[in-house]
Structure formats: C-alpha cells, structure tokens
User: What shape does this take?
Amino acid sequence: MQLNTNLSNAPKKTNLLVILIISAAAVAVGFIMFFPSRTAFDLPDKNNPKMVAMFDKQLQLNIDDHEQNSFHPGYLPTAKEHVGAYIKTIAKLESYSRHGVNSSQARNAILLRITFADGSVVDKVHTGRTSSHVMPPPLLMSVSIKEGKTVSVLTNGMEKKSSPDWVIPDLNTVINAAISYDKNSNNNAYFPPTKTKQDFEKEWEEQ
Assistant: This one.
C-alpha cells in the first residue's frame, strides 16, 4: 500500500508558508520604522500671507549683502547687480527633507528645489541643514517669486509654533542656498578670476 506523499509533505509546506509570511511581515515593519511614509509636516501647503513681506525683506537684505565693502572686500563691484538679476530668474523655491521629517535615516538633509522662470529645474541643492526624527519637524517652505519679488509663501505650519523672529534664519537658509547655487555655477560673476601659476610668475617678475 502506497502512502500519499502529497499529504505527508503538507505540514512542511504549511510551515514554510508561515515562515515566509512572518519574514515578510518583519521586513515590512522594519521598512516602516526606518523609512516612514511622508507626514503632513513634509507638505508645505499652508498659505501664510504674513510671511510674504518677511521673505521679501530677507531676500533684499541678502542681495544688498553682496555689495563690495569692508566686510566683503572680495566681491566684484558688479556682484550685487548680478545677484539681483539672478533672483529675477527664479519662479519658485521649495525646501524639503530628503527622507521625510520623521525618518531615522542618517544624513537626512534639508534640500532645495529651484524652479526658474524658463521652466528649468535644479533639484537637491544642499542648504547645510538636516532633519532628525528626534527633533521637531523643520520649517519647510514653497515660495513663489516673480520678477524678484515674493508672491506667496506656503509652509508646513511649523512657523506658527514659534515667534516670527525665530523663523528668519530659516528664510535666510533657503535664500542663501539658492544664491550659493549660482555662486558655484557662476563664480566669476561674484569674484575676480582665480589666479593661475602664470599670474604668480608675472607678479614675481614685476616685484
């Protein structure tokens, strides 16, 4: 009399299926813990009209800061004019957390997306700041600009959890990151050309 091998293998198949289900569940839980989904604080969708004038003021102060003076002797005399013209090419500035504000991943940088008036986009511009799940969510913004003037400011609502004066550094972070991108791309528009070996040799000849 032959045994039914299908019946004898059934418990093994059942055990294997249970193990696979448990493993998949463990992976899913781990993924959720270390790569959490985006939250409401990742979305700058709350309009704050009062921040329009605030952002515009810091925008102009940052432009004026590029004027050649004793504090910034390295700037070209035309640097302020150039950065003002550059700001007029921007249509939108959007800050965001690389992995989401609740993520526990390392190097969770706050990045900037720049949309220009011609439709071109530059993404993943570093701001020098990071986001951490052990800290309150950072202030994220979506700022619309037209002809160098701030039109609207959308936020994730974090500015309402502090004094208006306390968010000024966050405004400058976004503005400085946008200007730094242009400095890296058009360094000669801000500073004299870097001296070469030939320049140094000529200076010694004329010494």
Notes: The radius of gyration is 27 Å. The first helix runs from residue 5 to 34.
